[in-house]
Amino acid sequence: MFMFKATLASITNLLKKVTENVLRAKIVFFDANPVGRILTRFSKDVVMFDMMFPMQSLMFLNGIFRSISVVITVCVINPYVLIPALFLGVLMFFIMKVGMGPMADGQIMDSLEREPIHNTFSMMINGLVSCRVAEKMPYFKLDFMNSVYRSSNSMFCCNSVSSWIGLRLDLLCTTFTSSVCWFCIIMKGKVEIKILIVTLQLISDLIAWFSYSVRLYAELSNQMTSSQRMFDYTSLEIEDELKKPTDKELKTNGWPTQGVIEYKATTMRYREQLPPAIKDLTFRIEAGMKVGIVGRTGSGKSSILQTLFRLVDLS
User: Is the full-model pTM beyond 0.85?
Assistant: First the structure.
């Protein structure tokens, strides 16, 4: 119960912070990140961290503690079992080290390949009329199915690596059980029959629980990448503050009676590495004036409106 409450509190705080940052993120963030990538953070990543992580972590702790208790009990009864236990432990560590990398890569590729699915689907919905008029529905359908195939292949690779790890862990657990049975046969006349029966009964749980626990550990490690991707959104560069200290002057002095717009040496650039779209712009528009902005393509007409509505911060 404590684990579920702790996980619920953590995901609630994390989701609240991520939602606030995304809603107040700059327009540049939405230009650089497609809709599918943002939707994946609020759909698949939230489900992985909110629903699957608590249950699987509880099952992992239950299984790993049961497995450790079985190994300790068997080793106390028969210390000679420590020899194959240590040897098989090294092999298990090597198998996990080899399999965890490809399994994590498969999870990352699956997350990346899910984004084009959302992007293509939203693109088809928004431009449905244009796609039908231009007879481009087969093209977008093929693009959508290719994205689904790539995502399925990534998940298949991840599941294949998980099965590869599970098969070898089962073989090691079976080897350890066989060694315990062999030692029980050797110690038949030296140890009581009741103790040997208890040893064999305990060791039968090891095959099922230990292999399953280790596979759960691998999945939990991969699921933490979902929380990591969500945590990256907590450090987004947000827009300027909604409330400023100068707002108190509006309450005391009142709102301006005339709508005057004045720019003084205004400079704006969309990104820090790009040249300024507006440079040292100065003008004044008096109240009641009707003004039209005329200029060639790329001269900064729409950029002026974006600065006026604070869609882009001034440099």
Answer: no
